[in-house]
From TrEMBL:
Pfam families from the UniProt entry: FtsA (PF14450), SHS2_FTSA (PF02491)
Protein's name in the database: Cell division protein FtsA
Gene Ontology cellular component annotations, sorted alphabetically: cell division site; cytoplasmic side of plasma membrane
Organism this protein belongs to: Mariprofundus ferrooxydans PV-1
Domain SHS2 as annotated: residue spans: 8-194
Role according to the record: Cell division protein that is involved in the assembly of the Z ring. May serve as a membrane anchor for the Z ring.
Length: 410
């Protein structure tokens, strides 16, 4: 049985499913997946917990299944956070170095200076992700400690989220006797699992299309530049099918997964499918193209919203590596082709990678966030010194913050 300090658990609390993925970290830093538990999610809307009881129940069942498969007792998890309450800002801070050489303390101070910004009272800082440091006007520095200079500047991406949403996630986990090691923005987690370093360097857009939300993150020169959440996902496609095909949500979701496509031209006109009816009526035959005709405009609309957001962010022309689509809805037939057409850039499907063990069971884009949470956790564990300059302290602060949100009672 795996030792506890080697076990990493990613708990992806999604709108459609809860996925609990368990991995074991080897001494060489390799991460092997040893178990997974999934359960349909019942208490979320558009990425946000709206029913604690139902969410707790779904988490419990997913975690139990994962524990059984992995043969470990799960005590703490890395979990994701999403929803349209999330905001991303670029900010920067400047300090004078104390001894003409940049120390850890200077870096901590400059990050603190960068986070000093006016955020609404109901929002809290979730992440401060350093983009680059500038020492005496020399820009593009990623590892500033030990370098000479008197003026240290940091450019950072600050991500904030609604306090109550974060609190509810922690509450649900605590109710299942789970500690939350850290809470990670879902697209930041997914990016750990599906993006390659060279893509982050030359510029890439990550688009995670789940059930309730579409999460976007833009990377350039190795770090995150822009984040955005659109409260539309695969559930909206399913709802359109419910209305268009007059069938139940369950059947519509299954039909979508099996026969759905978002490009009518991909579906042969002679293909027929059977639509189960409601109210005891007999199933009806229908051309498969009808489904594509319903789905195509909705996906197009979503892609246009993403395109507008990219234009607003100013990064549309700078992402040389194009776009990576992930999340369950990226599996819809024709997604990559339609995205290439609308964005006029190279697009690929992002499946989780960078792990060993039971790779096949987590190879679906649906598990990008869950696997990414594990890789995020591993990066923190494996490299505490390097992370100290930025994320390690952040990690400690996340704890302090979470304790703060709950008062002194936890
Ligand atoms: N093969 C498929 N074709 C089309 N859609 C699919 C397929 N498989 C899954 N989906 C859709 O993907 C969605 C679920 O994706 P995912 O598991 O990534 O969402 P989630 O993480 O639970 O939700 P969110 O991230 O929005 O909170 C559902 O809407 C489901 O219908
Ligand atoms: Mg998701």
């Amino acid at each position: 049985m795996a030792k506890h300090d080697q076990v990493l658990v990613g708990l992806d609390i999604g709108t459609s499913k809860i996925a609990c993925i368990v991995a074991e970290a080897g001494p060489d830093g390799k991460v092997d997946i040893i178990g997974i538990g999934t359960h349909p999610s019942r208490g979320l809307r558009k990425g946000v917990v709206v029913n604690i009881e139902s969410t707790v129940e779904s988490i419990r069942l997913a975690v139990e299944e994962a524990e059984l498969m992995a043969g470990v007792d799960i005590q703490s998890v890395f979990t994701g956070i999403a929803g349209s309450h999330i905001r991303g800002y670029n900010s920067h801070g400047v300090v004078a170095t104390q001894n003409n050489e940049v120390t850890q303390e200077d870096v901590d101070r400059v990050i603190d200076a960068a986070r000093a910004m006016n955020i609404p009272a109901d929002q809290k800082v979730l992440h401060i992700l350093p983009q680059e440091y500038i020492i005496d006007n020399q820009d593009g520095i990623r590892e500033p400690i030990g370098m000479s200079g008197v003026r240290l500047e940091a450019k950072v991406h600050v991500i904030t989220g609604a306090v109550s949403s974060a609190q509810n996630i922690v509450k649900c986990c605590n109710r299942c006797d789970l500690d939350v090691s850290d809470m990670v923005l879902e697209q930041v987690a997914s990016s750990e699992a599906v993006l390659m370093q060279d893509e982050r360097d030359i510029g890439v857009v990550l688009v995670d299309i789940g059930g309730g939300t579409t999460d976007i993150a833009v990377f350039l020169n190795g770090s995150i530049r822009h984040t955005h959440v659109i409260p539309i996902g695969g559930d909206h496609l399913t709802n359109d099918l419910v209305i268009g095909l007059r069938t139940s949500a369950r059947e519509a979701d299954q039909l979508k997964r099996k026969y759905g496509a978002c490009l009518t031209s991909l579906v042969p006109p002679e293909d027929q499918i059977e639509i189960p009816s409601v109210g005891g009526r007999a199933p009806r035959p229908m051309p498969r193209q009808v489904m594509a005709q319903i789905l195509e405009p909705r996906v197009e609309e979503l892609f246009e919203m993403i395109r507008d957001e990219l234009q607003r962010s100013g990064y549309q022309e700078l992402v040389a590596a194009g776009m990576v689509l992930t999340g369950g809805s990226s599996l819809l037939d024709g997604m990559v082709d339609l995205a290439e057409e609308i964005f006029d850039m190279p697009v690929r499907l992002g499946r989780p990678q960078g792990v060993g063990g039971l790779v096949d069971v987590v190879s679906s884009p649906m598990y990008a966030t869950g696997v990414g949470l594990i890789l995020y956790g591993q990066r923190y564990r494996q490299n505490p010194m390097k992370m100290k300059s930025t994320d390690h302290n952040l990690f400690a602060r996340v704890w302090m913050r979470m304790r703060g949100w709950f008062g002194d009672t936890t």
